[in-house]
Amino acid sequence: MRGPPMSNTYERAPITLDQQLALTTAATRLAGDFDGVFGQETIERFLHTSYDQFAGRAVVANFLPLLAERFARQRLTALARVEGLHHDGRPTVLFLCVHNAGRSQMALGFFQHHAGDNAIAWSGGSEPTDQINPNAVAAMAERGIDISAEYPKPWTDEVVRAADVVVTMGCGDACPVFPGKRYEDWVLDDPAGQDLEAIRPIRDEVERRVLRLLDELEVR
Questions:
Q1: Structure pTM?
Q2: Per residue in 54-67, pLDDT tens?
Q3: Is 203 part of the annotated catalytic residue set?
Q4: 36 counts as catalytic
Q5: What is the count of structural domains for the chain?
Q6: Distances (CA, A) of 66 to 35, 58, 161
Q7: Are residues 211 and 110 in the same domain?
């Protein structure tokens, strides 16, 4: 029931009463989801540190508790896997880029679309921005895949450690490295600042690589 150590200088981001009530409700849901796996203290710590990750760059502050809950659930799921508290045997892939707004989000969308419930995929960025590239969203919509509900997020140690495969796309030395883990570096153009027409070939190459990875993992 351990979580990552907290710094003694940690300061919580400002929070309104409505946000605090929403976080309390989120903590209750997470406690139910992870009953018997993690204690309340760990759950609340992960929830509040997840909240702080988005507090300084959220476009709509009212969505902060929801984003924090979703991110905390992912992190707790990863920690449970790392600590051997839960593992359903499905392969897990983590897609990383710089802003977690284009390439890694498209890869996540294709992976989830083609793998369904047979594998798990997460994404993150070394310098996450405040929203997904709208042209990347439009490009994926052309393929019938909706990534508009996703959101840029950072990577965390437990998420990287829980992944079977870590795919990096342009984050260079900022990408985390753990010995013994399978890494792939996909050299792809960055969709940032590009129009829809320019993003289409990037999207198609991302899908080709995702499909190849799924074949190697014997998923689909």
A1: 0.89
A2: 887 655 567 889 99
A3: no
A4: no
A5: 2
A6: 20, 11, 24
A7: yes
